[in-house]
Amino acid sequence: MNGNKFLHISDLHFFKSDHLKGRKDGIHHFEIKMRILEYISILITKEQIGAIFISGDLELDDCNILVPFLQEWSSLGCSVFIVFGEHDTQTARRELSEFKNHLNRVYIFNEAEVINDDALNFFVFGMSCEPKQTGFNKIFCELQK
């Protein structure tokens, strides 16, 4: 892999939904995102991608859907860096972080930090955004019934 080639993905909003891209197309948003993630494995090999950066708003409703992609990408020799966005719940962050312990070369930025992956020729700084649900949940729980 070429440590100086990287791929950036942002705002996946990767949750199961029946929402169609367009009525005439008949393709669900979730299906589009699945196909794109499947295609990334081809790109890693074809373009010799050394790192993938996933920034914010993964919005996972099931981490088990993303983990096989992370496993495949890292098995192809690609490092994966994940930064959370405001739409990523504490639960999804925690669940994905637990999977990370079993994945080689997958890094999750729960706190601001600098990562140096020995296979790359550069450092990566990441800082996740505070989930907006934190403030909402507090206010919601304080509402009187």
Explained architecture:
By secondary structure, the protein is α/β, with parallel strands linked by helices. The chain contains 4 helices and 6 strands. It has helices at residues 29-47, 63-75, 90-100, 132-142, and strands spanning 2-10, 49-55, 79-83, 106-109, 113-116, 123-126. The strands form 2 sheets. It has a 4-stranded parallel β-sheet with strand order 1-2-3-4, with helices on one face. Helix 1 (29-47) links the parallel strand 1 (2-10) and strand 2. It is globular and about 55 Å long. The N and C termini lie far apart (58 Å). The mean pLDDT is 82.
Question: Which key terms come to mind for this protein?
Answer:
145 residues; globular; alpha/beta; 4 helices
Helix content: 25-40%
Could you tell me the mean pLDDT? 82
Order of helices and strands: EHEHEHEEEH
Strand content: 15-25%
Biggest sheet features: 4 strands, parallel
Radius of gyration: 17 Å
Report the structural category.
Answer: alpha/beta
Count helical runs: 4
Distance N to C terminus? 58 Å
Taken from the alpha-carbon principal axes, the silhouette is: globular
Report the strand count. 6
Low-confidence stretches: none
For this structure, the quaternary state is single chain
Task: Give the strand line-up of the largest sheet.
Answer: 1-2-3-4
In short:
This protein has 145 residues and is of the alpha/beta class. It has helices at 29-47, 63-75, 90-100, 132-142, and strands at residues 2-10, 49-55, 79-83, 106-109, 113-116, 123-126. The strands form two sheets. Strands 1-2-3-4 form a four-stranded parallel sheet, covered by helices on one side. Strands 5-6 form a two-stranded antiparallel sheet.
